[in-house]
Specification:
Elements lengths: L1 H19 L6 H8 L2 H4 L3 E6 L9 E10 L7 E9 L2 H8 L4 H7 L9 E2 L10 E7 L16 E8 L2 E8 L3 H21 L2
Antiparallel strand pairs: 1-2, 2-3, 3-7, 4-5, 5-6, 6-7
Helix pairs in contact: 2-6
């Protein structure tokens, strides 16, 4: 009887792994995201694999890198580096990144679906999307008490999609961080790391 339970457990694990696969650390993505650290001037608090756009064809990996977020930091910024095998795959995946998609993905972070923002000017890239949203209020505050706005920037350069989710960092610093991320993504693609 025990071997039957063990067999079922192993079969279940194999099925789950076959359906979901495994998320692996992506050192190349870490290097790309690290390029924003000097501009953001916040420590890296965490780096981990993530599943953003994983269902898209030719997805290689997504790495989430969190900057700041501690009490003494001026804000919090999460950078998601999504790598694809081909540029056409990244183009198709980028088209999924709409305000509704982000709201369905991260509804707990937002009071409502993000809306377009016009500034800051973003670096020249093949595709870009700039959004803003209001984070949820603490339970003891009224809607008029909080004017915090978070920025959500998505960029594509070649076969790499970058998503920057930030609160507490001014827009000019985010634009500069986006420029550094794009430079690093282009460099990584040239060297093929």
């Amino acid at each position: 009887m025990q071997w039957q339970r063990l067999s079922l457990l192993i079969a279940g694990m194999l099925f789950t792994n076959g359906c979901l696969g495994t998320l692996v650390e992506d050192r190349s993505a870490d290097l790309i995201a690290g390029a924003a650290q000097s501009v953001l001037d916040m420590p890296i608090r965490a780096s981990r694999p993530y599943w953003l756009l994983r269902q898209q064809p030719n997805w290689i990996s997504t790495q989430q890198i969190d900057f700041g977020g501690a009490a003494l930091d001026r804000g919090r910024t999460s950078v998601y580096v999504v790598r694809f095998r081909t540029t056409p795959a990244a183009v198709a995946a980028f088209q999924r990144l709409t305000p509704d998609y982000f709201y369905r993905l991260w509804a707990e972070r937002m009071r409502e679906a993000p809306r377009p923002m016009t500034d800051p000017p973003l670096p020249p890239v093949e595709q870009a999307l700039s959004l803003e949203y209001r984070p949820p209020l603490p339970r003891n505050e009224s809607d008029t008490a909080d004017d915090a706005v978070a920025q959500l920037i998505a960029l594509r350069s070649g076969a790499i999609v970058l998503v920057i989710d930030s609160i507490g960092v001014d827009r000019q610093h985010l634009a500069s961080a986006a420029t550094e991320l794009i430079k690093a993504a282009r460099g990584q693609q040239r060297t093929g790391r």
